[in-house]
Structures are given as structure tokens and as C-alpha cells.
Amino acid sequence: MVASALNLAAPAVTRSLFQPDEIKKLIELYAATPLFHNTPEWIIRDNPYRRPVNSTAVQQLDFNTPLKRAEILGANALAAHRMLLNIYETDLIFLPASDFTGKRNDFASYYSNDNKLLGELIRPTLEAHVFNFLKDEINVTGRWSVEALRSYLQSIIAKHEQSELEICNAVLASADPERACRSLLIQVAGDFLSEASASSRNILGKYGEIQSELFKIVIDDYGYGVHPAKHSTLFENTLSTCGLVSDVHAYWQFYLSSSLALNNYYHYVSRDHSKYFQAIGAIAVAEAMFSHSCREISKMLRTVFGNTVDTYYFDEHFHIDAHHGRMAFDYVVAPAIAKHGDGVIPDIVRGMEELQLLTSISDDDLKAQIAFSDAVGSLKIPAHQIHQRILKGRLRKPNAIHVENRGQSLVTQVLDQDKLYVVESGSLDLVIGHDQSVRLDGGEAIVVPRERLHGIAVVSDECRYQTYDLEN
Ligand SMILES: [Fe+2]
Ligand SMILES: [Fe+2]
Predict the structure, then answer these.
(1) Percentage of the chain surpassing pLDDT 70?
(2) Which ligand is nearest to the CA of 316?
(3) 193 DSSP 8-state letter
(4) Does residue 5 carry a pLDDT above 70?
(5) Given 3-state DSSP classes, what are the helix, strand and coil percentages for the chain, each rounded to the nearest 5?
(6) How close is the Cα of 363 to the center of ligand 1, in Å?
(7) How far is the centre of ligand 2, averaged over its atoms, from the C-alpha of 320 (Å)?
(8) Alpha carbons 368 and 366: distance in angstroms, whole number
(9) Is 0.85 surpassed by the pTM of this model?
(10) Residue 287 CA to ligand 2 centre (angstroms)
(11) How far apart are CA 391 and CA 355, in angstroms?
(12) For residue 316, how far is its CA from the centre of ligand 2 (angstroms)?
């Protein structure tokens, strides 16, 4: 029997079904799927199945050990989160807006049993790799009651509602607020364009009154079946009035790993139903905090884009999520505790804490990316000085030589150490965003700090360049 051979009676041991080297091969096989190859363009238009994972980088990475907190914005995290979102989203339906016939093979490949089964085999390893650090970071202790939980949540919300959103301040303080604002919208687009899809996993099955209460929140997000009122449709309007396209994952290449982590977290706790109580904790805190966040983001959008931007997505959430926050606590969380006992509270608290931690990591990551984006033009000067020291033999660093042609396939990456790029001949663009790049001609150099997302596009027939690994 297959079941006994695979020991399926013990779900917690899925990872040990395979040896680490076997898992590594399966991950490499998954990453090598043609659908996930690098793309010819930075923006992926109207094809929700093309999702590059950088298979060359994946081959050099090991995913068998959980990342530490200090490692969660590195190359491993980006690759693992890209694969995880691809795996989770095979449960969701995506269709292109046009030319289905031309994309039918991609559609069939993305939803194929081969893709789904291979994804399932590697999912627990990838989840442990990127999410296990939360167990070390968050320790839920003490005796909890529903009253203690209510006042804990109220104190979180009160503090949040008195704060200005740091991420909005960072956007407004940027050298290019429009660019920074678009960057923020891109980071949330992965989630908002299929809003509430992960939560909808929790309305299946049969578990009593609270299931129907949760369903009310989800149907609000789905606009009660009126497509123009569906929250994802409202967000499409925001994107288009800010000069962005609203195709699902059009800006896949520019998602930061921390943004993918937030999106993946909802799937992580909602797909594995043993994490149900974590999921409702995360939903309760997210709904309760989103109201104020949306008010601040709406104001920021107005300041940056003036009257031309459609802020209705955020204005709608400012109103409805204050209500959803109360619904989630009073009609889902509190009744769940009353019915299933105080023993479920630590899981609920864990969900609340983990979501807040991932949100703050994501905000900090985006702030750092905006700062990099603002400063990238000035990074040629220190790069030139470092290169001179290398040429004079005063500095020795491991290096690699690259020769690439125009038309090479494209993929963005983050690196675990600062990297010096030196162009010897030809020209390349260091690409920071879909709307930002820095040209490097022969003799020019630049330093890219560790953990900062960037891509390389050769813009001459051939380009020969060197890279040096610097310290962090
Ligand atoms: Fe919503
Ligand atoms: Fe909501």
C-alpha cells in the first residue's frame, strides 16, 4: 500500500519522508519547471502562470535548515517564498484576460498534477525554512482568558491608531514619492488582487455558527457577488490611476521576499487547518489594524498623486475593516474560545503576534528598498574607489567573470553580501524597479548592498563584467 509505505498516518513527519539531498533534488526539479523560467521582460503581462523562481540560484541554495531571523531577507528566503506562493496558488483560479488559446499550455502546466504533487512534496520543507524562525521569536506564555485577549487586542489597535504609518512617511520623504508609492502598491498587489482568497480556505467544511460569521467577512471582500464592488476590483482601479497595470503578478519580479512572506503567511495558516486558531487570530488582528492603515495610505496617495488617483479601495476599508475587526473578534474569536476552551488562546495569540511581526519586517524591508532606490545613483563613487583598491592589490575579494548577451532572460535577485559590479566592456542596466534602472558602461562600477532587490539587463550586443563579494 502506498499509504503505509509513505507513513501517511503521521502527518507531522512529512519532511522526514525524504532525506535532505532528496528534498534538494525535488526542489531543483520544481524550480526547473519551464513555467518558472526567467522571463524576457521585467513586467509579465496577462499571464498569471509565468512566475520566475531563478532556478540557477535555487541549485546553489539549501532549504533544509530553518532560516534565522537575521537571514530572512536573503537569497534563500526570496527563492523559497517565490516557490511557496506558486505552490499555494495552484488552489486559486487565475485566467488571462485575453488570448486563452495562446496561454492554454501554461494554464495546463500550472494546474497539472505533476506541478501540484511536486509542490506538495517540497512545501513542508520550504515552510519550515521560512516560517520556523517565528517560533523562536514569539513565545506565548501565561494564563489567558478571553477578557485578557480582548484588552490585549484593544491595546494593539489603540497604539496603532495613534501612530502615523512609518511606511507612509518613508514614501513621502523619498526623493521620488511617486516611484516609492508605486513600489508600495506593487508590494501589496500580490495579495490584494486576489484578496481574501487565503481566508476563504477557512469557510469550507462544517463547524457551526462562527463559520457563517467568517463567511460574512469574506463575502464583503467579494463585494456580495457584484464584481465592480469586489475589493480586488477596487484595487485594480487604484493601480490603473497610479499608472500601474493590474494583471495578476505583472510585477512578480519586484516583490520583496518580505511582501511574499506576508502573502504566504495567510496561506500557510489557512491551508493547513491544524493552524485554524492561528489563522483566526491573524485575521482578527489584520482586519482590526487595516482600517487605520487604509486611512493613512489613502491620505498618502492623495498627497502624492493629487485628485487623479482612485483611493476608493482604501476608503472602503477604512470604514468596513473597523467593522470587520469587531466582527472577527466578537463573532469568531470570542465564540471560538467559548466553545473550544481557553486552550486555543495561545494559538490565537500566536497568529496575532506572527502577523504583526511579519508586517513590521515587511515595512522595514520596503523602507530599506526605497532608501536604496533613492541612493543608487550615488553608489558608483564608492564602487569606483573599492575597485581601485582591488586593482592596486590592496583589497582581495572573491570574484566571478560574466559574459552575457542582449536578450538574456531576466530575473531579479537579492544577495547575502554586498556585491561590487564592474563592467569591463559593453553596457548593462542595473534594474531596481519596473520604472528605474542605472546604466553602467565599460569602466563603470556600482555596489549593491546585501538584501536589496535588483536585476541585470545587458543593453549592448555583449557585455563582459565582473562581480566581487564584499563584506556586509
Ligand atoms: Fe477587503
Ligand atoms: Fe476586511
Answers:
(1) 96
(2) 1
(3) T
(4) no
(5) 65, 10, 25
(6) 20
(7) 6
(8) 5
(9) yes
(10) 5
(11) 47
(12) 9
Residues with a beta carbon under 5 angstroms from ion ligand 2: 287, 321, 324
SS3 of residue 427 by DSSP: strand
- pLDDT number for residue 140: 94
Tell me the CA–centroid distance for residue 306 and ligand 2, in Å: 26
Helices (H), 308-344: 312-327, 334-340
Distance (Å, whole) CA 260 – CA 32:
20
Give me ligand 2 centre to Cα 290, in Å: 8
Q: Is residue 79 a contact partner of residue 61, using CB atoms and an 8 Å limit?
A: yes
pLDDT digits (tens, 9 = 90+) for 291-325: 999 999 999 999 999 999 999 999 999 988 888 88
Ligand nearest to the CA of 232: 1
Ligand 1 center to 352 CA (angstroms): 18
Residues in a beta bridge with 423: 465
**How far, in Å, from the CA of 321 to the mean position of ligand 2?**
5
In order of their start, the domains of the chain are: 11-131 (no CATH), 142-375 (1.20.910.10), 396-469 (2.60.120.10)
Exposed e or buried b per residue across 163-186, where buried means at least 16 C-beta atoms within 10 angstroms of its C-beta: eebebbebbeebebbebbbbbbbb
Ligand nearest to the CA of 223: 1
397-415 mean pLDDT: 94
Location of C-alpha cell 502598491? 185
Task: Cell numbers for 263, please give them.
Answer: 502573502
3-state secondary structure 225-287: HCHHHCHHHHHHHHHHHCCCCCCCCCCHHHCCHHHHHHHHHHHHHHHCHHHHHHHHHHHHHHH
| Ligand approaching nearest to the C-alpha of 314 | 1
How far apart CA 263 and CA 190 sit, in angstroms, is 7
Give me ligand 2 centre to Cα 134, in Å.
25
Ligand 1 centroid to residue 320 C-alpha, Å: 8
Mutual angle of helices 257-271 and 177-192, in 10-degree steps = 20
